[in-house]
Design brief:
Elements (H helix, E strand, L loop, with lengths): L1 H44 L5 E6 L2 E8 L2 H12 L7 E7 L11 E7 L2 E9 L4 H11 L5 E8 L7 H12 L4 E7 L2 E7 L3 H13 L6 E7 L9 E7 L2 E6 L1 E2 L2 H13 L9 E2 L8 H15 L2 E6 L2 E6 L5 H14 L5 E5 L14 E5 L5 E7 L2 H15 L4 E3 L2 E2 L7 H12 L4 E6 L3 E8 L4 H13 L4 E8 L12 H12 L18 H14 L4 E6 L6 H21 L7 E7 L10 H7 L1 E6 L39
Parallel strand pairs: 2-3, 5-6, 8-9, 12-13, 15-16, 18-19, 18-20, 22-23, 24-25
Antiparallel strand pairs: 1-2, 4-5, 4-7, 7-8, 10-11, 10-14, 14-15, 17-18, 17-21, 21-22, 24-26
Length: 638
């Protein structure tokens, strides 16, 4: 009886255990299935189709290959939203890093008075130490702070060109921010004057490689314009400005819109500057331009607060009175208007008197025509010799005492205006003073207009026809041919343009020298240059001559490869016939193996009498003849 009771108790416990295990197994299966289903649903909702799910009891395994680390983390976060994160087992792989897109490499070069800072990300293969060394060589005695990071990815196309160009810019701008990317360079900087800004921008643009995109933002303080001048003309030749000045961009916009309404088209330049007599300058100038347009033509000149208006001959008197009256009423009170309606000139039996001064492209100055006294003639001659040089002036003007008393002052004003031009002419008549010619100063027209307005006053009419020619502009920093010749010598210095032994193939060590010479010659432009090759006396004379010719040609080809215009260059091989040292020693033979850059001097220009037609000619470009000049250079052994 007792044994039977024990058996029953044991059996009951066994049955309970079996039932518990069965219940636990069923519960675990339900939990596994529900967890897997919930996680899959959440992954699908986030479009993480690369991820898969597996379960083992309460554990949830995430498996698959994530495209990025961020995608892996997103999958773990999605699973953690529906199950306890402690149950999630991460078995996700990441795709190979080689398939990940490379970062955007960029460098900021900041140059201030305290030094140069380098900030950004560059490829590991870029020689960091060489970059810093290049900067220190370009800007000596300037500390360089290297804050660069690197990434091990291939160098993108255009990266090295951008880097080399940016280093060369550092020596030009003392205060600048240069942003460098592959194939693109953005430059922001500040210079001390508007003229310097134009020269720097022209220089940087000229040296930019063809495949490099360049963005420039160079600023300079606005110049002080005195007198603050604007002169607008509308006649049979169309509408135009002889001079245009504005204090702000807003005023310039107002002026240019008024000029466009009056019929002016094409590129219009209006100089920004300081010195305006009133904050209402733009509105006042627009009123004056509108008045000339309403009159059907004429000219109006603003010189500080003085306004001079000339209507066209034949303008209706009532229209003239109405337009001028309205202009005087509408202009700000600071302005004083003087308006003139010209009358038809009376016939003169002896012809219209005139005084002419011409300045030829060669620099010769002639004074002809009439002056009103002997003192006036001597004064004009003395002024011209002081302005242009005593040896270049010839005076043949005659005295006519019937000329008006203001004639002498108008002649001197015309000569001063002519001194602002590279070549041109001044014509003084009883009714007007005209100035025409060529200049290398973009602001010459405005400056001459201001000068004449100041010297002649409000009652005088004058005409200005000045053409700007870039090749005459000294502010562009274009060196003369002689300066280019000397700078080549300076560039080479103690280094050598070397070749592989016995051949005309440039040695790899010469690449830096050729790069620097090419940069200079791009700036020099079309100059008459001879590239001459020389050897020592070892070997046969004929072979030495041919080798020297081939080496000079290799230098020319290297310059062409660097996009230098070489149409005016010549190559010559002199072989061993022009030694500069003894061929009996190794040092002498080394000196004789060289490349010389020689400038062909222009032929003398015969003296000719200057004529009025010469003012239409541009500055001369002398024909050149061969002549030897001693220069610098180097070459390796033959």
């Amino acid at each position: 009886m007792r044994l039977s009771s024990v058996f029953i108790v044991v059996a009951a416990f066994l049955a309970a255990a079996v039932l518990s295990l069965a219940a636990a197994w069923l519960s675990a299966g339900v939990v596994e299935e529900s967890s897997e289903r919930a996680v899959r649903t959440e992954l699908d909702r986030d479009a993480l189709t690369w991820a898969d799910v597996d379960t083992n009891g309460l554990q949830v395994f995430l498996i698959g290959t994530a495209p990025t680390e961020a995608a892996r983390f997103q999958a773990l976060s999605a699973a953690g939203r529906v199950v306890d994160t402690a149950r999630v087992i991460d078995q996700i792989d990441i795709e190979d890093g080689d398939s990940i897109a490379p970062p955007r490499f960029s460098i900021e070069m900041l140059r201030t008075d305290d030094g140069i800072s380098l900030i950004g990300l560059m490829p590991t293969s870029t020689d960091r130490a060489q970059l810093v060394a290049d900067i220190e060589r370009a800007v000596p005695n300037t500390p360089v702070a290297d804050l660069l990071e690197v990434a091990d990815y291939p160098v993108p196309d255009g990266w090295n060109d951008s880097l080399e160009y940016s280093v060369s810019v550092l020596r030009v701008l003392d205060r600048s921010k240069i942003s460098i990317e592959a194939g693109r360079v953005s430059i922001k900087g500040a210079v001390e004057s508007e003229d310097t800004r134009r020269r720097v921008e022209a220089d940087l643009a000229r040296r930019t490689p063809d495949d490099l995109r360049l963005a420039l933002e160079i600023t300079a303080p606005r110049p002080v314009i005195s007198p603050f001048t604007l002169r607008f003309i509308q006649d049979a030749d169309g509408a135009r400005f002889d001079a245009c000045s504005a204090p702000t961009d807003e005023d310039r916009t107002i002026i240019l819109e008024a000029a466009a309404v009056a019929g002016m088209s094409g590129k219009i330049d209006c100089r920004l500057g300081l010195g305006t007599p009133t904050s209402e300058w733009g509105d006042a100038a627009a009123m004056g331009i509108a008045a000339i347009n309403e009159l059907g033509g004429g000219s109006i000149t603003f010189a500080d607060v003085d306004v001079t208006l000339f209507a066209l001959e034949g303008t209706d008197q009532s229209l003239f009175d109405r337009v001028v009256g309205a202009l005087e009423a509408d202009l700000p009170g600071v302005f004083v208007v003087k308006a003139t309606l010209p009358k038809p000139p009376a016939a003169e039996s002896e012809g219209i008197p005139e005084f002419t001064a011409t300045r030829s492209p060669e620099g010769d100055v002639q004074l002809r025509g009439r002056v009103n006294s002997e003192i006036a003639r001597q004064t004009a001659d003395s002024f011209a010799r002081a302005a242009f040089g005593s040896s270049t002036v010839r005076t043949t003007a005659r005295v006519d005492e019937n000329l008006p008393a203001s004639w002498a002052s108008r002649v001197l004003a015309g000569l001063e205006a002519l001194s602002r031009l590279s070549n041109g002419a001044v014509l003084v008549t009883p009714d007007t003073l005209s100035v025409s010619g060529n200049t290398g100063n973009q602001n010459a027209s405005s400056e001459i207009a201001g000068l004449l307005a100041e010297k002649l006053g409000d009652s005088e009419e004058y005409e200005i026809s000045v053409t700007y020619q870039e090749k005459l502009d000294p502010l562009l920093g274009i060196p003369t041919p002689e300066e280019c010749e000397a700078q080549i010598v300076e560039i080479i210095g103690d280094r050598k343009i070397s070749f592989e032994p016995g051949s005309a193939t440039l040695d790899a060590s010469t690449q830096d020298i050729m790069d620097e010479i090419a940069d200079l010659l791009k700036l020099c432009g079309d100059i008459p240059l001879v590239i001459a090759g020389h050897t020592d006396s070892q070997g046969r004379e004929v072979m030495n001559q041919q080798l020297s010719q081939d080496r000079a040609q290799s230098v020319l080809n290297a310059l062409r490869d660097r996009r230098v215009l070489t149409s005016s260059y010549q190559v010559r091989g002199y072989g061993e016939e022009r030694p500069i040292a003894s061929n009996d020693t190794e040092e002498g033979r080394e000196a004789n193996r060289r490349i010389e850059f020689k400038l062909r001097q222009p032929e003398p220009i015969p003296e000719t009498e200057t004529t009025l037609e010469s003012i239409e000619q541009s500055a001369p470009t002398g024909e050149t003849a061969d002549s030897d000049g001693a220069e610098e250079s180097t070459d390796e052994q033959n």
